[in-house]
Amino acid sequence: MKRLLHYIKMMIVFAVVWVILEERIDGTTVLMGALIGLGTMLVTDRYVLRGDYQETYRLGFWTALRYVASLIVQIYVAGVQAVYRVLTRKLNVGIVDVKTSLTSDFHISLLANSITLTPGTVTLDRKGDTLKVIWIDCTTTDPDEAGPQIKLNFESLISGGRS
Amino acid sequence: MINVIAGQILMGISLVFMAIGIYSVLTFHDFYSRVVITAKVDTVGFITLIFGAMLIQGFSFFSLKLLLILVFELLTSPISTHSIAHSAYTSGYTIRKEVRAEGSGE
């Protein structure tokens, strides 16, 4: 039952993408998109991703929306800061460990991606719940002090709502 | 008319961002600082470019396609940066201090 609901939701998404790519809205195009989406999902379930991945890659709609909005703001802050650092040549690169309180792999990978996109940091490596991060303005190597400055509020944004 | 001008201004800003990114790749010596700077500047330039093109085109299938491209870029860009930095880290690159050398850029 749950699987069927997931299929129907994903078929709507696939149909929307298909309509955008075809640049035409009529019954045939929507039906074609939904059917191709269904075929794709069946092949994926059968040969590529075995097991229940639907629950693993779940993010609430509003959580995702707030996350993306905050991400774009942070990307712009990052860009302006990077330009400032290039022009003044103020660089103090270091590598720090950051501990995260998130548990699921999907959430940790989202956090690592957002760290890569936000001001002055790129994720290098992950061991358990510890992320290795290059930091362009490395003032401290203490994980507890560096953590909040690097993670910003993404941890609560990602796990916020129904996680 | 106003949206075309605003879109062209946005595209101009994005070109400035990308030019600064290329300048940083050419002038910095340390691998890690290059990676960190280009990862940011590239993404900002790309997002601004896409927004500018969407403003010029208005709401249509074309700008929806651009939105799809933007989502794809946001998903893949940090992963490519991460894999480049990760492979450098595992093959043992260390951090070099930036030297303020004049005339070494030639």
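Residues 61-88 of chain A form the longest helix (28 residues).
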